[in-house]
Write a structure and sequence with these properties.
five-stranded mixed beta sheet, 25 helices, Helix Hairpins, seven-stranded antiparallel beta sheet, alpha+beta, D-amino Acid Aminotransferase, Chain A, domain 1, binds 2-(butylsulfanyl)adenosine, disordered C terminus
Length: 688
């Protein structure tokens, strides 16, 4: 770094402080970071460097001196008994040797390290008293945290009560154990699919999803999010253990979840080998990690080394640089979704990245484009990380072609030309012309016919064809297309017309809750539709409900209630519902149509994976019709994993690990065959 003048350094420090505070808020409070960890760490390192060079400019309020704060209004804040610090981190192996040298200077004795995965979730501090979970606090600002006990008790991995193992270490009367709450990839993908279904913005990565879920006001919803936990730091007043590893092994013996991947290393070289091995192996893990933590194992040496203002001197994190690729940006498309949100999507020169070829990457919104100062023709860095859709994280300015044009975020809808409006809360641009914008109309049909909704035999291409031939504009139009018109369309034959008409006919038996979901009301996904349908019983009751009445439905918050109110007061929607009703669609809960086939699966929770003789959606409905419950991921509370052909290997592995029975479709059919006594069958199946 070239030596800066005092004035230039003061200006740069002020700017870096402001920037870092903004990113702290995005990360800790909003759970929606706009830059990668790597970029954040670079800013932080620059600030640390400048403060070291100009000590008179280093102030107490600098982000280098305190950890970011995740404190939220809705939870009670409780002071941490021991401050909750962060860890020093580095991206350079060289600096790990320096870390080792600093320890060597402090002691004459030999020491060892505990090498551990750095789990990418949100930090948690659990207190156990008399063997029972007393309290769970988030990191907060490091000195006080949010009390999230009521949510944490719903995470199956966290025991409310501990058990003394025979001959094992005694459980201290009171102690703290800290760790990470994280969301495995599978649960993360499921959650994001649901959010996309509801027209909500997906979480950027599993870490934000975990942090956001932990702060939910509704513990039941939180329980459905599939969170997991790993604990890695034991603290108590009179620590009875000699080493960190002994303490963690004891915690494990009491029933607490700890990492099975930690290893002791007797030298920094051995620690390096651990790092090298996990740099590749970590890609096979079913959860996100962002580095390796190396801790001095001997607790007396830990005490001797102590802490800096922000982090311990006895531990450090080596962070993996996210895999990224550099490639030219060819153009930007502006896509209109069914809810009208306009998303900029970058078209890239195809480039290999973590095993796939990346051609497109999301740019999220206009703010993100401005922040990157992206130009067409720029060489851009693309990252995958935990995200499903790759994203552009930075621009390589040294490669910017001369006269590279700035992209122009449209002021009008790229599809229908209506001026866009900006939703400042979500930093998104919307096309307000929901009635006539072709992309939105087509999006609504694609959603309406989808399997989880009306299950009508029509793919995206068919919807496009019917739309461009002027045959569909409003949802009821689907049911009134003359068959002759269909026969005249390219690619349609007698058989395909019949199949299509059959599926339309069948859709008239689809229960009310799915019809409600199919209407595509903003923020109303599958689960909410079920809750609303069973609460109100009919579309009429729902459309006439007041805000207060809507808010009485469990799981319905203000945003959802407002979305329903706005949808219902629109005259066009009311007419559409009347037309669909006249066609014969179900707009009332029909208790008998709940198709209760038996009680044979009463109290059973089944996870469905792979292909069966019927579609997965039909299989789930069948399970529910037999009184069972379906969930997306295997956990301690799963009764069976129903595995068809090509069942997910991760689910099978998890089931094996947790000792959950895996059953086939044949087993399932036997289990639900008429005349089966559920208890006897359940016993029978316990031997499969
Ligand atoms: S030890 C005094 N061990 O990474 C600090 N932290 O970036 C004790 N983390 O604050 C922390 N995996 O939230 C430790 N195996 C591990 C970890 C770990 C993830 C998190 C933790 C920490 C952050 C630092």
């Amino acid at each position: 770094m070239a030596k800066k003048s005092h004035k230039a350094a003061a200006e740069r420090i002020a700017l870096l402080k402001r920037e870092l505070e903004v990113h702290n808020r995005n990360y800790y409070v909003l759970n929606a970071p706009t830059i990668s960890d790597f970029e954040y760490d670079l800013l932080m390192q620059e600030l640390q460097g400048l403060e070291a060079m100009f000590p008179d400019l280093a102030t107490q309020d600098s982000p280098t001196q305190h950890v970011g704060s995740d404190l939220a209004q809705a939870f009670e804040q409780v002071a941490h008994k021991y401050p909750m610090m962060s860890l020093g981190n580095t991206y350079s192996l060289e600096e790990l040797y320096e870390f080792n040298d600093r320890i060597a200077k402090a002691t004459e004795q030999p020491w060892s390290f505990s090498c551990e995965l750095k789990f990418d979730g949100t930090a948690i501090c659990l207190t156990y008293r008399d063997g029972k979970l007393l309290r769970a606090l988030t990191r907060g600002d490091g000195t006080k945290g949010d009390d999230v006990t009521r949510n944490v008790v719903n995470i199956p991995a966290i025991p409310r009560e501990l058990h003394q193992a025979p001959g094992g270490a005694p459980i201290p009367q009171e102690f703290e154990i800290r760790g990470e709450i994280y969301m495995p990839f599978e649960a993360f993908e499921r959650l994001n699919e649901e959010r996309a279904d509801r027209g909500e913005i997906p979480f950027a990565n599993p870490r934000n999803a975990a942090a956001g879920s932990l702060k939910l006001q509704n513990p039941e919803e939180m329980a459905s999010r599939g969170l997991d936990c790993v604990l890695y730091h034991f603290i108590t007043d009179d620590n009875p253990f000699r080493t960190h590893i002994e303490a963690i092994e004891a915690a494990h013996s009491w029933g607490l979840p700890v990492s099975q991947f930690s290893r002791r290393a007797d030298s920094i070289e051995e620690a390096m080998e651990y790092i090298k091995a996990w740099d590749t192996k970590r890609k096979e893990l079913p959860f996100a990690t962002d580095g390796i933590v190396i801790k001095v194992n001997e607790l007396d040496l830990q005490r001797q080394l102590g802490f800096t203002a922000k982090s311990p001197r006895w531990a450090t994190a080596y962070k993996f640089k996210p895999e990224s690729a550099l490639t030219p940006l060819l153009s930007i498309d502006y896509q209109v979704g069914r809810t009208g949100a306009v998303t900029p999507v970058a078209n890239l020169e195809p480039v290999p990245l973590s095993g796939t070829i990346v051609k497109r990457a999301s740019l999220h919104n206009k703010d993100q484009m401005d922040l990157l100062d992206i130009h067409i023709g720029d060489w851009v860095y693309v990252e995958k990380g935990g995200e499903i859709i790759p994203k552009i994280t930075a621009v390589e300015l040294s490669k910017r072609p001369e006269n590279a044009p700035l992209p122009h975020f449209p002021e009008v809808c790229p599809d229908c030309g209506t001026p866009l409006v900006r939703d400042s809360e979500q930093a998104r641009h919307y096309c307000p012309n929901s009635d006539n914008c072709p992309e939105q109309i087509k999006g609504r049909f694609i959603h309406f016919v989808s399997r989880k909704a009306m299950d009508i035999l029509a793919g995206d291409a068919t919807v496009e064809q019917l739309y461009s031939n002027g045959l569909i504009r409003e949802l009821p139009d689907l049911y009134t297309i003359p068959p002759m018109m269909l026969l005249n369309l390219e690619g349609w034959q007698q058989k395909s017309v019949e199949n299509f008409l059959d599926s339309l006919e069948k859709s008239k038996t689809v229960p009310f809750e799915r019809v409600l979901y199919a209407l595509g009301i903003r923020h109303i996904g599958e689960t909410t539709a079920k809750a609303v349908a069973s609460h109100f019983g009919s579309m009429d009751a729902l459309m006439n409900a007041s805000r207060e009445e809507l808010l009485q439905v469990p799981d319905i918050g203000g945003i959802m209630a407002d979305a329903i109110l706005e949808w219902s007061k629109n005259e066009k929607h009311r007419n559409m519902v009347a037309r669909l009703k006249a066609i014969g669609l179900r707009f009332e809960i029909d208790e008998s149509s709940r198709q209760k086939l038996s009680d044979s699966l009463e109290g059973c929770t089944v996870v469905v994976s792979g292909n069966f003789s019927i579609s997965r959606e039909e299989m789930k409905r069948l399970i529910e019709a037999h009184g069972g419950k379906c969930t997306g991921s295997v956990s301690g509370s799963t009764t069976w994993l129903l595995a068809g052909e090509k069942a997910g290997p991760e689910k099978l592995k998890k089931a094996e690990k947790l000792g959950i029975k895996v059953i086939s479709e044949d087993d399932f059919r036997r289990l639900t065959a008429p005349g089966t006594e559920s208890e006897t069958e359940k016993d029978l199946f316990s031997n499969i």
